[in-house]
Write a structure and sequence with these properties.
There is one protein chain. The protein is of the alpha/beta class and 415 residues long. The chain folds into two domains: 242 residues, Thiolase/Chalcone synthase (Peroxisomal Thiolase, Chain A, domain 1, 3-Layer(aba) Sandwich); 149 residues, Thiolase/Chalcone synthase (Peroxisomal Thiolase, Chain A, domain 1, 3-Layer(aba) Sandwich), CATH 3.40.47.10. The protein contains 14 helices and 15 strands. Strands 5-4-6-8-1-9-15-14-10-11 form a ten-stranded mixed beta sheet, with helices on both faces. A three-stranded mixed beta sheet has the order 2-3-7. Strands 12-13 form a two-stranded antiparallel sheet. Helix 3 crosses helix 6 and helix 10 crosses helix 11. The model has no long low-confidence stretch (mean pLDDT 96).
Length: 415
């Protein structure tokens, strides 16, 4: 990849539409407002076999763009994806009637898919004396890994390439990176790209994090996730989605589109060291190589949004990496989002980027939430705690990491 400064307008990739649902907002304006005001989207919910657990659920209209018959046949992740994709298209100003649908791509990052449907079918199986006659004939299409992207394709009649990218909790970034690559390669003219997650509807993910000693909890659910705080005790599982319209700068200019920002750099690598424990050296390498591709130095990055899950060693390892890269820099501000919305898994990277993109216009950097007693091992110069900070923002680096050692860093610039 050449540095962004050497690309022409046909090769430059920009964001021209955003559609999202999160635990604290169902469109970019509401979401941004609640981040700036420190509004939490975490609540207690009853989870099968687990009882009352802190979680982040989305409250959007599943039937705004989706017929009830298709929702019945499909999945929660699919309904999230359909909602976000349609909202992104509306936001972009694109008329679908005028499009060659062979030249539209759908690239959605996911952590896992099919757990919800499989758990539900097994639950019903045990309610019916293990009679497999009651097993749903919709199970196979519901549980194939490409289901969320495929459901968007069915909903919008898109006949170009549509598939998901399994990249653990780095998946939201990977959806955007893959979409940008496919446009630049000439495979599609524009893309719907981002990430989705239905994780709060599966008890297994809660049980697994609980078994690891990594499930966040508190009497007040809004305090159950405390990334970087000394009293953090784990992850709050959330659902959500954020899908972007991506297109070339040339195409966006031609149709007079509003441009949220330009993808100017990215990198993806792997730790190859542990199933769950992050490797700060590989994270350092990931950020540095993303900046090299963007043609930028650390002092030219205005915001770093940390992955910051709220786990003990995960936060420390990432802070070590960010401190190594940006510690000597005075200009860069550091924030994190999961204290507001929990961990939206496959949607985390794309949702957290969306929370910072409006800073290009409003000049505000939202703070981390729930840092009341900063862990000394997580102390970084430039960390935004308490109130939002006023700053001119021209560049954002979005970190998103995942299990089995996948790391991603994505850099967006103001246009």
């Amino acid at each position: 990849m050449a540095t962004s400064k050497s690309l022409n307008d046909d090769q430059r990739i920009v964001i021209t539409g955003i559609g999202l649902t999160s635990p604290n907002g169902n469109h970019i304006q509401e979401y941004r407002k609640n981040l700036l005001e420190g509004v939490s989207g975490i609540e207690h919910m009853e989870i099968r076999h687990m009882g009352k657990v802190a979680a982040g659920n989305c409250n959007f209209d599943e039937y705004k763009y989706l017929k009830k018959k298709m929702r019945k046949r499909g999945t929660r992740a699919g309904s999230i994806a359909v909602y976000c994709a349609n909202e992104a298209i509306v936001d972009s100003g694109i008329s679908m009637e005028d499009q060659d649908k062979d030249l539209i791509g759908i690239y959605l990052g996911i952590t896992e898919h099919g757990n919800v449907e499989t758990e539900n079918e097994i639950h019903q199986l045990y309610q019916n004396d293990l009679n497999t006659d009651f097993w749903s004939h919709h199970h196979n299409p519901r549980t194939v890994a490409n289901a969320p992207a495929g459901e968007v394709s069915l909903n919008l009649g898109i006949t170009g390439p549509s598939y998901t990218i399994g990249a653990a909790c780095a998946a939201g970034n990977l959806g955007l990176i893959h979409g940008a690559q496919m446009i630049r390669a000439g495979e599609v003219e524009w893309a719907l790209a981002g990430g989705v997650s239905e994780s709060t509807h599966t008890f297994g993910i809660f049980a697994a994090f609980n078994s690891q000693g990594a499930l966040g909890s508190h009497e007040d659910p809004t305090l159950a996730t405390k990334p970087l705080d000394k009293d953090r005790n784990g992850i709050v599982v959330s659902e959500g989605g954020c899908i972007y319209v991506l297109e070339s700068m040339a195409r966006a200019k031609q149709r007079g589109a509003k441009i949220y920002g330009e993808i100017i750099g990215y990198h993806v690598n792997s730790d190859s060291t542990d199933f769950v424990l992050p490797n700060s050296e590989r994270q350092i390498e990931c950020m540095q190589k993303a900046m090299k591709k963007a043609g930028l130095g650390p002092d030219e990055i205005d915001i770093v949004n940390m992955h910051a899950t709220g786990t003990g060693q995960g936060d420390i390892q990432e802070c070590k990496a960010v401190r190594e890269v940006f510690g000597p820099v005075q200009n860069t501000l550091i924030n994190a989002t999961k204290g507001h919305i929990g961990h939206c898994m496959g949607a985390a990277g794309s949702l957290e980027l969306a929370g910072n993109l409006p800073s290009f216009e409003d000049g505000m950097v939202h703070s981390c939430r729930n840092i009341d007693n900063l862990d000394p091992e997580c102390a970084i110069d430039g960390l935004v705690i308490g109130e939002p900070v006023k700053k001119e923002v021209k560049t954002i680096l979005n970190n998103s990491f995942g299990m089995l050692g996948i790391n991603s860093a994505l850099i967006i610039a103001k246009v």
